[in-house]
Specification:
The structure holds two protein chains of two kinds. Chain A is α/β, with parallel strands linked by helices. Chain A is 36% helix and 24% strand. In chain B, helix 2 packs antiparallel against helix 12 (268-282) and helix 4 (91-115) runs antiparallel to helix 10 (212-238). Chain B has a single domain (14-322), classed as ABC transporter involved in vitamin B12 uptake, BtuC. In chain B, the strands form two sheets. A two-stranded antiparallel sheet of chain B has the order 1-4. A two-stranded antiparallel sheet of chain B has the order 2-3. The relative contact order of chain B is 0.18. The chains are: A alpha/beta, B mainly alpha. Chain A binds chain B through residues 51, 72-74, 76-78, 82-83, 85, 89-95, 97-98, 101-108, 111, 114-117, 119, 121, 141-143, 159, 163, and chain B through 1-5, 186, 188-194, 196-197, 199-201, 203-212, 214, 264.
Chain lengths: 247, 323
């Protein structure tokens, strides 16, 4: 399988601290890859290095055969790379529906064309379908900031999928989500993966979620990849268990 | 109706809102018929300030930027118009010239906003206003300095004279409605949503492909253009301009108008401009106390209604829901 995303020996240092220390991995088309590791293992720094939020100290990131190392988030978005953040990132004063439309409208025509485009930028139906998929119909017209944390998390994730990106990096999608919603969230991600055909990279601490969602898992410890492979194999790796549970 | 587009009449239907708006406009249009000359002047001044505060509401309320330089654009528009019209150029030629000049300068003023935010940006824009004010005051050969420029003519309209106060009021009111209409259309377009996204969360906005650089610059440029157009109407209204009305304290009053009315609410500047232009005049019967009472009223408003006067319906709705 030709790699879709290639991360090659990426390093990020803050003085003497090596937050990411030579990480290499591939993601194939349509593949879902999980990234696990204890707090401070460099997962989010790795995400931010891939996504242009921070510039890696060294290494290279290729997407669809093109180098994207250090590329600005705006350029990455235009190439079909989406993301969610560890903390909630919604547009609090916009309605749920407007949040979803805002997430995709910049991919419709030019800046000037959007000035004379209809208010919903022709994305109303798509937004409504996404609202239905995420079961947010009853709050679709309420400001996102007035909703519960779990509902905002769902909006946050739905926004990342609105432009039908080719690659989505999800940073702790289950954080703060009611356990009863976790299964729903996993099913949604599987549905979107099948419907849109994009590749996902998912950082998550919820082991059950990641083991059931991702056919391939990477475990990071102290900035390095400690283990990689099918979930069962990584889960039974002695070093991984030690990193999580101690000796 | 989306939260973004929610108007001052809350969840009332579009038809009810349009009727209420039309009644309000007609009532305001006929009001000067019952006023003396100074009252008509105040109503016209209200329209002029309304154009400028509507522009500022786009920059501050919708796009989430900070600006303490709106009076500078009012002044730039007024001086360009005054100099041009004194040179014999028509009002209708100076209107686009002032608008384009303010658009360009506003675009440039947007650049600091790409690097700094909040109070740092407030000081950067305030510095711009001070700089423009000093140019108006000191460059006597161009601006007339503190002596100003007098004898600015009023335009005609298809052969009709607008020299009368009432005629000029209606002329300015129509321009104000056109500016409001254009801004309303802009804010209902995808641009309006992009401005709101920039205000609420610029990092997320950029990760979703929203060009925050372009929208930040346009937020300043469009806001400045509105003030520039207002400046042209101001010059012909007072027919004599000097630097004092374009001091940064006027920018502060405009910002106050936007915030008191309801920042980021379309009709917020209407109430805000009533507060900053008309309320001080109504309070004049208090003689020496009127400014103190005005100041107290503003402080009280900010404490009890930080969301502005137009947040009252939302507050009442929330209270009803809680009961």
């Amino acid at each position: 399988m030709t790699p879709f995303l290639e991360v090659k020996d990426v390093r990020k240092s803050y003085g003497a601290i090596k937050a990411v220390d030579g990480v290499t991995f591939d993601v194939g088309p349509g593949q879902i890859v999980g990234v696990i590791g204890p707090n401070g293992s460099g997962k989010t720094t790795l995400f931010n290095s891939i996504l242009g939020q921070i510039k890696p100290t060294s290494g290279r990131v290729d997407f669809c055969g093109e180098e994207i190392t250090g590329m600005a988030p705006l350029e990455l978005a235009r190439r079909g790379v989406g993301r969610t953040f560890q903390s909630l990132q919604v547009f609090v004063k916009l309605s749920v529906r407007d949040n979803l439309i805002a997430a995709a409208q910049e991919f419709k025509g030019t800046l000037a064309a959007r000035l004379i485009a209809p208010p919903d930028a022709g994305l109303g139906d798509q937004a409504d379908r996404m609202i239905e998929l995420f079961r947010l119909q009853h709050v679709a017209h309420l400001p996102a900031g007035s909703l519960s944390y779990g509902q905002q998390k769902l909006i946050d994730i739905a926004m990342a999928f609105m432009p039908a990106p080719r690659l989505v990096l999800l940073d702790e999608p289950c954080a703060g989500v009611n356990p009863s919603l976790v299964d729903q969230l996993r099913e949604l991600l599987v549905t979107l993966n099948q419907a849109q055909g994009g590749s996902f990279v998912v950082i998550e601490h919820n082991m059950e979620f990641i083991m059931r969602l991702c056919p391939h898992v990477i475990c990071m410890v102290e900035g390095k990849v400690m283990a990689e492979g099918p979930p069962a194999e990584v889960q039974s790796n002695r070093q991984v268990l030690e990193a999580y549970l101690g000796n | 109706m989306s939260a973004r587009a929610q108007g001052p009449f809350g969840s009332a239907s579009v038809a009810v809102r349009m009727v209420a708006l039309a009644v309000g406009v007609v009532a305001f249009a006929v009001l000067p018929l019952f006023l003396k000359s100074y009252g008509v002047y105040l109503c016209t001044l209200f329209c002029v300030y309304l154009m400028a505060t509507f522009g500022l509401n786009l920059t501050v309320g919708y796009a989430g930027q900070m600006s303490l330089g709106q009076a500078a654009f009012l002044g730039i528009g007024a001086y360009i118009a005054a100099i041009g019209m004194k040179a014999g150029l028509p009002f209708y030629a100076m209107l686009p010239v002032s608008a384009i000049a303010c658009f360009g300068i506003g675009l440039m003023l947007g650049f600091p906003a790409l690097r700094v935010q909040h109070h740092y940006l407030a000081f950067a824009t305030l510095g711009f206003n001070v700089l423009v004010f000093l140019i108006m005051r000191n460059e006597e050969s161009i601006t007339g300095g503190t002596f100003g420029i007098s004898g600015i003519p009023r335009p005609g309209f298809f052969g009709l004279s607008l020299d009368g106060n009432l005629a000029y009021f209606w002329f300015t009111l129509v321009a104000t409605l056109v500016v409001m209409g254009l801004l309303g259309w802009l804010l209902r377009s995808p641009w309006g949503r992009a401005f709101a996204a920039l205000r609420d969360n610029p990092i997320r906005a950029e990760s979703l492909g929203i060009n925050i650089t372009a929208y930040t610059l346009f937020a300043f440029a469009i806001g400045a253009t509105c003030a520039g157009i207002a400046g042209v109407y101001f010059a012909s209204l007072v027919q004599f301009i000097e630097p004092a009305p374009f001091h940064f304290s006027t920018s502060l009053m405009m910002l106050l108008g936007v915030i008191v009315g309801g920042s980021g609410r379309f009709f917020g500047p209407v109430l805000g401009t009533v507060i900053i232009v008309l309320l001080p005049e109504w309070l004049r019967f208090m003689q020496n106390w009127y400014l103190a009472v005005f100041g107290f009223a503003v402080v009280a408003l900010m404490i009890w209604l930080p969301g502005g006067l137009l947040s009252i319906p939302d507050k009442l709705r929330l209270r009803r829901r809680a009961q």
